[in-house]
Structure formats: structure tokens, C-alpha cells
Amino acid sequence: MPPRPPRPRPVDPPTEVIPRVEDEDDYDDDYYDDDDYYDDEDDKPAPPPDSFARKAVRGFGEALITMGLVVLLFVVYEVYVTDLLSAEKQEEATAALDSEWGSNTVTPPPSDPNRQNKLTLIEGKAFAKMYIPIFGNDWKFSVVEGTTDKHLEIGPGHYKDTAQPGEPGNFAIAGHRVGKGAPFNDLDLLQSCNAVVVQTQTQWFVYRVLPMSNEVAGWASNPKSKDPACAGVAPLSTTHGDAYAKTVGQEIVVPTQGEVIAPIPHQVNTTVPPDKQARLLTLTTCHPRFSDRQRLIVHAIETKSYPVADGFVPPEMTEG
């Protein structure tokens, strides 16, 4: 066979040259020299310097914020932190009192109900326990001798030189309403005939809140007066004379009115023989809450007493 002719070779297309991308440096500098390219902020005028008034307002605002934070921290400390510190001190005082009562020989109560064994009161030391059943089973505090800030950080404090529990006269106790344990926080909620129970090593004393000022006039016809819980409760002016006309269940006074804890409240120059005096309990605290501008006062009268005995709890303790 004759030889085949050679096959034609394919022809490659011409190579396309891609134009080189110019570097940034190759751009026209004139483009960047255009002032419109740059941020407009460069064209803004500089702010005027702060005036004295502007600085004063800014400083005053910062001071108010700082003061607000300080006040907030102070409130948190007074309301919460001091409660924790006082609770610890109250526990220590109660433990010491329980230990003393457990180790001492109990002196039997006097046979004459008009007489009462004198307690040995030591400043800053607990000598009795107080319960307000209407506030619940967990409301209980040991009462210490003295009413200074140091004493009231522990718990309710007994006014020196006022009567002892169960004695004729006025057994007066002070307590904080906010912070530092706040034992008397709800004192304003007490109503006439509510019980306040005080326990010493040998005796239980039951005091009941006196009729309120708006109940005195019509107490005899008040259905509450027939309630068994109100037995022994009546306006003192009808049972102990006009000297007690101002002594009612609750009152608000100014701090300078110390006569509310006198043996006969509001009567500092009146002499009444002890056997004619009512056996009162007076509780005092600040009013209103978060203020010491006034004092809230609650007066109660002793209606019953029981000797301390193993396992015995006064029935009044269940009235909560």
C-alpha cells in the first residue's frame, strides 16, 4: 500500500497576555489627594474647652452617684449585716443564760404572790427570756440588762432602775426596730389583749396589751372585753385610779418623754404605794421605721404567772 500522508499538527492558539494588576502604590496619587476621600471627622472643628459650669455639673453628678452608692451600702449593712452580727451575739447570750439556769439551784418562788424574788442583774448580761406568741413560735429573745447601743446589739434591753419582771411598777424594755436583730420590728401590730410572756429562772409572767386609746371609752360594751384572752385587761383608770388615765395600749411620743417608763407612766411627781401600783410591762422602740424621730410605746399589764416546772409551758404560748 502507498504510504499515508502525514497528519497535520494542531496549531496552539496564541497566548493571551493578562494585563498586570497595578499595585496600590501605582494608583494615581492625585486620587488620594482629594480631600473628599478622607473621613469627614477630620473636617469637624475641635470641641470647645469645658466651661466651669460644665465641669461643676459633671462633678456634682459624679458626687451624687458616689453618695448614692455609699448610702445603699450603709442600708445593706444596717439592715442585713448587723442582723447577722446581732443574731450571733443573741445566741451567745442565750447559751450563757441556759448554762447559768442549768447549773444554778433554783430558788422556789415565794408563797406570797405579792412578793417576788429579786433577780441579780448584771449590765450586758441576759437575765430573762421574752416571747410574743402572736408573732410565731420562732419569736423569742433573751433580755439583757442595759439599753446602750452595745446592749441593744445583743437583744432587747431592760431599762435600769425600772421594775423587774412581776414586780409592781413598770418593767420597761427597749429594742431596735430595724437592723441589729430588729426584735421590735412589728411592735405596731400588737393589739389589745395580745400576750407577751416573760420567763425567768423560777417564774413565767404573762402580760397582756392594754386597751388602745380608741377602745378605752367603750371597753365595757366592747365584745372583746368578754373574750377569755382579755381576762384581767381593762382601762387602768377604772381599775387603778386616775393616775393611770394616760396609760393605754399603744402611744407615740417624742424621745424626750422618758416619763413613759416611770412606775406610773406619765406621772413623775405622783407617789403611789407599791401595793397600789399596777404590774406593767412597757416596750419601747423607734418610730417610724428607719427613723428615730419618735418612739413607739406599748403598755401591757400582768394577768397571770406560773412557776417554772419541767415540761410545763404556759397555755398562752399557743395563742400565735
TrEMBL record:
Key words of the record: Hydrolase, Membrane, Transmembrane, Transmembrane helix
Family annotation (Pfam families): Sortase
Acidic residues bias spans: 22-43
Chain intervals for the UniProt region annotation (Disordered): 1-50, 96-117
Transmembrane segment boundaries: 60-80
Keyword Glycosyltransferase among record annotations: no
Xref: InterPro entries: Sortase, Sortase_Class_E, Sortase_dom-sf, Sortase_E
Protein name: LPXTG-site transpeptidase (Sortase) family protein
